[in-house]
Amino acid sequence: MSATWQWQLTGTFNTSYNVGVYDIDLFDTPAATITSLKAAGRKVVCYFSAGSSENWRSDFSQFTAADQGTPLDGWAGEKWLDIRSSNVRTIMAARLDLARAKGCNGVEPDNVDGYANTTGLPLTAADQITYNSWLADEAHARGLAIGLKNDVGQLVGKFDFAVNEQCHFYNECGDYRLFITAKKPVFNAEYDTPYVTNAGGARDTLCTAARTAGLRTLVLPLSLDDSFRYSCD
């Protein structure tokens, strides 16, 4: 998978970037847009949440009350999911079917680290590994690449690339050495204000560190709406 990328999940969609990979919303992006991106030589990764319910999604009513835990802090309308639930897996399998039907090259399932958060559910690291492994196997069975989102250190062998938020800010980028060594792309996004403004050369320092580490780092708005974009490539 080519390693230059653009990540946009909200706002008026911009297809003009000369990058190898577009990471876009599975539900909101028309199949025609995906077809157009692929015709232009882009790989298309389709985002969906695999670990939370979102009350605006078309399949939200399929989740039961028992499937859902506590709300995600800072994200209105989302609740953590019980990844042990067979019903949750049925819904996620249908989302993977949708990704294949729309022509996505790969998927980015989000919120796959519930075990490390306060979910209101008794999830363990073993539960997470089992679920993430299942997602990877199901994606591959459909001919889809799959990225590991933020759950640093789990299942390197199962995933084809990684998507990370703020590993520079949290000093966690070194954990991705296993991906880099395996020649698997690591797509990183940073949101901190000094990176946006380049105060004191913060963005320059960030980009030097990212290039040295072999990460594909973008500075983006938290809303991922393409209101600004700075690439370290």
Chain-wise SSE layout:
Elements: E1 5-7, E2 21-25, H1 31-39, E3 43-49, E4 52-54, E5 68-71, E6 78-81, H2 86-102, E7 106-110, H3 125-141, E8 145-149, E9 161-165, H4 177-181, E10 186-190, H5 193-197, H6 202-213, E11 216-219, E12 230-231
Parallel strand pairs: 1-2, 2-3, 3-7, 7-8, 8-9, 9-10, 10-11
Antiparallel strand pairs: 4-6, 5-6, 11-12
Question: Please, could you describe this protein's structure?
Answer:
With 233 residues, the protein is an alpha/beta fold. The protein contains six helices and twelve strands. A nine-stranded mixed beta sheet has the order 1-2-3-7-8-9-10-11-12. A three-stranded antiparallel beta sheet has the order 4-6-5, with no helix packed on it. Strand 9, helix 4 and strand 10 form a beta-alpha-beta unit. The longest helix has 17 residues. The two termini are 16 Å apart. The model has no long low-confidence stretch (mean pLDDT 95). Pfam families: Glyco_hydro_114.
Notable traits:
three-stranded antiparallel sheet, nine-stranded mixed sheet, single chain, alpha/beta, TIM Barrel, 6 helices, 233 residues
Radius of gyration: 17 Å
* Oligomeric description of these chains: single chain
Termini separation (Å)?
Answer: 16 Å
**What shape does the CA trace take?**
globular
Note the beta-strand portion. Answer: 15-25%
CATH topology title? TIM Barrel
Question: Helix count?
Answer: 6
Mean pLDDT: 95
Spans where pLDDT lies below 50 across 5 or more residues: none
Which strand order spans the largest sheet, edge to edge or round the barrel?
1-2-3-7-8-9-10-11-12
Look at the helices and sheets and give the structural class. Answer: alpha/beta
Q: CATH homologous superfamily - what is it?
A: Aldolase class I
Specify the helix fraction band: 25-40%
Helix and strand sequence: EEHEEEEHEHEEHEHHEE
CATH class: Alpha Beta
Largest sheet: 9 strands, mixed
The total tally of domains equals 1
Pfam family, one: Glyco_hydro_114
Domain Glycoside-hydrolase family GH114 TIM-barrel: 4-227
Protein name: Glycoside-hydrolase family GH114 TIM-barrel domain-containing protein
InterPro entries: Aldolase_TIM, GH, GH114_TIM-barrel
